[in-house]
From TrEMBL:
Residue ranges of domain Mop in the record: 296-362
ABC transporter domain sequence ranges: 1-237
Name of this protein: Molybdenum ABC transporter ATP-binding protein
Xref: PANTHER family: ABC TRANSPORTER I FAMILY MEMBER 10 (PTHR43514), MOLYBDENUM IMPORT ATP-BINDING PROTEIN MODC 2 (PTHR43514:SF10)
InterPro entries: AAA+_ATPase, ABC_transporter-like_ATP-bd, ABC_transporter-like_CS, Mo/tungstate-bd_C_term_dom, ModC_ABC_ATP-bd, Molybdenum_import_ModC, Mop_domain, P-loop_NTPase
Keywords: ATP-binding, Cell inner membrane, Cell membrane, Membrane, Molybdenum, Nucleotide-binding, Translocase, Transport
GO MF entries: ATP binding
Keyword Cell inner membrane in record: yes
Domain of life the protein comes from: Bacteria
Pfam families cross-referenced by the UniProt entry: ABC_tran, TOBE
Length: 362
């Protein structure tokens, strides 16, 4: 982990509920850390504690060596240099977009270097919207303004609580590229709450997973996604993230070949240049297992791999998860327990992983 880090520890019981939060963790002081977990696992409560909106008497928070709260000190929310983006943008309705952004600039911490108005407008594509009122904007546009406003106060930490949750799929797809730009172009660390694996796979570098108010995983995203010992919730699509490089573009078939540590995959041409680094998300449900290479199949990607673990799928009795090792990388396959038995799968066995679909997430 980088030297800079975001450290916190909280222990609290919410009065009138059976829920308690008991967490102690350090996250990287750069990039996007996803706070991931099932509904009710405590993600929002954790962000509220970090922001000082939920007071925890014995809590501690420090952000890259700036102490916000410890045994002696308690900075109230307005003193904490943070930006907070909620599920629904809460903009001033009587002000234009420009007016909302100007308000944030007035509140900016002058001691901290950060982005200026022109940069925020360009980063989030806001110039055509500046004169409009929030009521005239789409949900996705409002969220882009809310993110720009949060950045303009020059935060040392940006907290985002499911910023895409209230948007339909089309609007989500519209806003994701802007969030990716923040990840690549800004130094401010972000904690990003989500329960969407696709979103997390696309945006995050690091993952903190909560279950019933406890930390069950805290590590780099690629490594954390390939763990099969973490709790599963019904409907949770397991899958891995592979980081690779574009090695070939086949113009005849409109395909791109991506190599990663342990193998290569053909994907639909993504338009990425040769040599570009890309991220691939492979869902466990899109990987099947064969004992021999299948030459008479429509499946484009068949890779030899070694079984490293098999575990029942706690959310569906008929299924199991198989973890496969390819060089330094991993795949997960979700297959029926019956197939696993019929194939006689066991640890260390060499098999062929057939990959039906791969999503490029950049
Ligand atoms: N103000 C409150 N009063 C009572 N109970 C609360 C309050 N806020 C949260 N809770 C309870 O605390 C638990 C954790 O809630 P929290 O909102 O932090 O979870 P979450 O992981 O963010 O969930 P979701 O993904 O559904 O937003 C839940 O059981 C919730 O019902």
């Amino acid at each position: 982990m980088a030297e800079d880090s975001i450290k916190f520890s909280f222990s609290l019981a919410l009065p009138g509920t059976s829920f308690s939060l008991d967490v102690e963790a350090a996250l990287p002081g750069r990039g996007i850390s996803a706070i991931f977990g099932a509904s009710g696992s405590g993600k929002t409560t954790l962000l509220r504690c970090i922001a000082g909106l939920q007071r925890v008497s014995n809590g501690r928070v420090s952000v890259n060596d700036q102490v916000w709260q410890n045994g002696e000190r308690y900075w109230p929310t307005h003193r904490r240099p943070l930006g907070y983006v909620f599920q629904e943008a809460s903009l001033f309705t009587h002000l234009s977009v420009e007016g909302n952004l100007a308000y944030a600039i007035k509140r900016a911490d002058s001691g901290v270097s950060g982005i200026d108005l022109a940069e925020a407008v360009s980063l989030l594509g806001l110039s055509p919207l500046l004169k409009q009122r929030p009521a005239q904007l789409s949900g996705g546009e409002r969220q882009r303004v809310a993110i720009a406003r949060a950045l303009l106060i020059r935060p040392r930490l940006l907290l985002m609580d499911e910023p895409l949750a209230s948007l339909d799929e089309a609007r989500k797809q519209e806003i994701l590229p802007y969030l990716e730009r923040l990840r690549h172009e800004l130094a401010v660390p972000m904690l990003y709450v989500s329960h969407s694996r696709d979103e997390v796979a696309r945006l995050a570098d690091h993952l903190l997973m909560l279950d019933a108010g406890r930390v069950v995983a805290n590590g780099p995203l690629v490594e954390s996604f390939s763990r099969i010992d973490l709790p599963l919730t019904p409907g949770d699509q397991r899958g891995v993230v592979l980081e690779g490089r574009v090695a070939e573009r086949d113009s005849e078939w409109h395909l791109t070949r991506v190599i990663f540590d342990g193998g290569m995959l053909w994907i639909r041409d993504s338009g990425d240049e040769l040599g570009a680094m890309v991220r691939l998300h492979v869902h466990a449900g899109d990987v099947s297992i064969a004992l021999t290479p299948q030459r008479d199949s429509s499946i484009l990607n068949s890779l030899q791999a070694r079984v490293s673990a098999i575990t029942p799928d706690s959310s569906q009795a008929a299924l199991c998860l198989v973890k496969l090792e390819l060089g330094a990388s991993h795949l997960l396959a979700r297959i029926t327990r019956r197939s696993a038995q019929q194939l006689g799968l066991e640890k260390s066995q060499l098999v062929w992983a057939q990959i039906k679909s791969v999503a490029i997430v950049r």
